[in-house]
Design a protein that fits this description.
Elements: H1 9-60, H2 64-112
Helix pairs in contact: 1-2
């Protein structure tokens, strides 16, 4: 028969501590992914701006064939930017959910240990 790791204050505290460490590591990984996506989003914005500038230049010079191609590239750039932005927003929501879960777990642990939360 296995032991119940959650039984008793010391054992329960060890489990809560381990869960907190895992949650914190997961949150750190999410923040690292967020940083990469933030840079990707910023670069995607720059690409859209560059495509828009090139298109305006081609239209100003009356280069219709080039403008047609650049218009298509601008739409592709906007579409890709939308995908990056959606991923970034989803990850931001996930980070907030993880943070809330960590706070809830800490409050529950404190309540179970008889701490009031007031310093």
């Amino acid at each position: 028969m296995g032991s119940d790791l959650r039984s008793g204050i010391a054992g329960g505290l060890a489990v809560h501590t381990a869960e907190f460490i895992v949650s914190s590591a997961r949150l750190t990984e999410l923040h690292e992914c967020s940083a990469v996506l933030r840079r990707t989003r910023k670069r995607a914005e720059e690409i859209v701006d560059e495509a828009r500038t090139l298109l305006a230049e081609a239209e100003r010079h009356g280069d219709l064939e080039r403008a047609y191609l650049l218009r298509d590239q601008l739409e592709q750039a906007r579409d890709r930017y939308g995908h990056v932005l959606t991923a970034y927003l989803s990850l931001s929501r996930k980070i907030n959910e993880e943070r809330q879960e960590i706070l809830r777990a800490q409050m529950l642990r404190d309540r179970n240990l008889g701490l009031s939360g007031v310093a």
